[in-house]
Design goal:
There is one protein chain. The chain is an all-alpha fold. The chain has 2 domains: 1-88, no CATH class; 90-193, no CATH class. It has 9 helices and no strands. The longest helix is centred in the middle third of the chain and has 25 residues, at 64-88.
Length: 193
């Protein structure tokens, strides 16, 4: 096994890859109607998001492929989770259709803009993105453990809007794609120094 491949197959990257591999299982469990199993699998996969970042930083396994795998894993898992929420909690999701469409519209614009401008998806890993991931994860877990909670949905939604606006602003501000950017505030502050 060559050294580069061995470096890419490190535990942090394998944890990120596990999120990508969990997506078809989440979708299958959802379609089969296994609500509890779906919820548990999403919960475990969400923990791998925190764990892969911790392992990568703690054991100095940070890599470009790891950052991309992390972003792909996050996006695909949240898409599968969204599908599962719509499947199991359709009345709640329909009641919040305009909010969801606005958030998904911003996300779609951000992704398309990134693909057009940088030829790939972003992996900024901003503070807002981390906060949004925690809020979204908490909302998803509460939905599957209990039921959708209105006030938690709105907190999650607002944080998601802030995160998407931050990502879009960064794409306008940065001349080239960078990984691990704290956020728009820090980029603007750094330019002033």
């Amino acid at each position: 096994m060559n050294a580069e491949l061995k470096k890419d197959l490190n535990p942090a990257n394998l944890l990120a890859l596990s999120r990508v591999l969990a997506v078809p299982v989440v979708i299958t469990l959802t379609i089969l109607g296994y609500k509890t199993a779906t919820g548990w699998l999403i919960f475990i996969a969400l923990w791998t998001d925190w764990l892969d970042g911790y392992v990568a930083r703690r054991f100095k396994m940070v890599s470009k492929i790891g950052a991309r795998l992390d972003s792909i894993g996050d996006a695909s898992l949240f898409a599968a989770s969204f599908f599962s929420l719509c499947w199991f909690f359709s009345n709640f999701m329909m009641a919040h259709l305009w909010e969801l469409c606005l958030l998904m519209g911003l996300y779609s614009f951000q992704l398309l803009f990134s693909l057009l401008r940088f030829r790939r998806e972003t992996s900024f890993h901003t503070y807002a993105a981390k906060l949004a991931a925690v809020a979204e994860g908490l909302f998803i877990v509460v939905c599957f453990a209990y039921q959708p909670v209105e006030w938690l949905f709105y907190i999650t939604w607002v944080i998601g809007l802030v995160e998407e606006i931050d990502e879009i602003a960064l794409m306008f501000l940065l001349p080239r794609l960078k990984e691990d950017v704290k956020g728009t505030y820090w980029v603007v502050r750094q330019e002033r120094v």
